Amino acid sequence: MIDRAALLGGVPMKALSLVLLTFQNSALILIMRYSRTMPLVNGHRFFSSTSVFLNEVIKLAISACVALHDISSNAGPNTSAKSILYELVTGMFAGDSWKLAIPAALYTLQNSLQYLAVSNLDPATFQVTYQLKILTTAIFSVIMLGRVLSTKKWTSLGLLTLGVAIIQLPQDTAEVTIEDSMTGEEAKIGRRALQQAGALGTLAVRSMLASATSTEQRLYIREDKPVDPDNQNRSVGLVAVLIACGISGLAGVTFEKILKQSPPSQKPVSLWVRNCQLSFFSLFPAFFIGVCWVDGREISEIGFFAGYNFVVWTAIMFQAGGGILVALVIKYADNIAKNFATSISIIVSALASAYFFKFQITLVYMIGTAVVIGATFLYSQPEAQPPIKTVEYEESDIGRHSTGLESARPLMMMQPMRSDSAEIERAESPPKRKP
Predict the structure, then answer these.
(1) Nearest to 333 by CA among 20, 28, 9
(2) Do 279 and 258 lie in a common domain?
(3) Same domain for 311 and 354
(4) Together in a domain, 273 and 152
(5) pTM for the whole structure
(6) Were both Cys, which of 127, 187, 302, 322 would link to 349 (CB 3.0–4.6 Å)?
(7) 3-state SS assignment for residue 416
(8) For 86-126, what is each residue's pLDDT tens digit?
């Protein structure tokens, strides 16, 4: 239930949560991008696998603190701390909670792909393209949950895809300058061919050097220079963000399906305990696959926290706090307000990318962004419900003259349940025995 009247220091929680979510969505991508392109820290760049692992550790700690606070608030005054901690632990591992390991592993892979994407895409393009997770979530919900989408929602999903496709055009058209038009198409093609040949030659030389040197020399070649934002592989970044969108939709729908298939006799689990479960099961793939298997050799040689500084820690904290802010918005606002915050963050990211990362805001980019934002709002609009016709029951002869329970039941089904009608239903039905 949405609580719109809650206040914090005299400020409505709805407005505060929206402002914080907008700031977090905008700043997170910018900080993540800068952390992958900033000058090296002591000659090294941090490993994204370690940041993903620490992100899950921090989320687990925050969720556990909030869950313990909720448990202690509902417990008696004489409840010991050991009992509160025991209730949290038993709630995390009760029933079929082990099934959450599947979406947890998917979310871990998604976070890793986000780092790969922002390393090769500007924040503005990443922010808009990442909205395709709405499309993937809808498709997986239809396939896995049998959900039926209306024509309006399918139309909005089509517009969303069209807008993201339009966004990809500026990177090609922005290179067509006045000089290109004066020198002709042949000169433009030749210049691009030379650039591609030079990139391939550089890659070949670096590969030969890497195969002929020791491990220490290979690390030096990889880490001796800052990442040049102008020489990023846009195709790699685009593929990474598309896969991340697909995994995001699959993880979300899988998580929802697991919750719906939980036994009805199982004790209800709070939102913060669910966050604890996801973060706990995410630690295993983040550590054993990312830290140990992918980057284990380099981490053992240069250290777990190599390349860390204030910027990296800020990016980790912002990413860990994103889920909490979304939970606050869902509790104190609504889905439309969340989309409004996301739309503002897209605009802020574009302006900041133009200022800090020399991103060119073209007319085509503005059109594509407008289409994506409009499609997002269209998809979040509630479906029109048919009007409830209570007049037929109120004006019928049975409803006016009869006082039996049969005549009252249709009207109670069409109107909100009142206390007197609830008493009638309880008196009519035999009491249920507790198992």
Answers:
(1) 20
(2) yes
(3) yes
(4) yes
(5) 0.72
(6) 127
(7) coil
(8) 999 988 888 778 889 999 999 999 999 999 999 999 899 99
